[in-house]
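User: Please fill in residues for this 50-position structure.
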C-alpha cells in the first residue's frame, strides 16, 4: 500500500502544478458525488423499507 502511495506521489511531483490541481479538483468532485449518491441511496432505501 505504501509503495503505491509513493508511486502516486512521485507521479504528482513529476506533473506540472496546474495539471495536478485540475486532477485533484476532478478527484475531489468525483469523491463528493459518490458520497452524495451513496447518502441519497441510503435515504431512498430507508423510505422504501419504512
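Assistant: Residues filled in for all 50 positions:
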Amino acid at each position: 500500500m505504501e509503495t503505491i502511495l509513493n508511486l502516486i506521489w512521485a507521479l504528482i511531483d513529476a506533473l506540472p502544478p496546474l495539471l495536478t490541481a485540475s486532477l485533484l479538483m476532478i478527484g475531489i468532485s468525483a469523491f463528493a458525488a459518490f458520497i452524495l449518491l451513496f447518502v441519497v441511496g441510503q435515504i431512498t432505501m430507508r423510505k422504501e423499507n419504512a
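For context: The mean pLDDT is 88.
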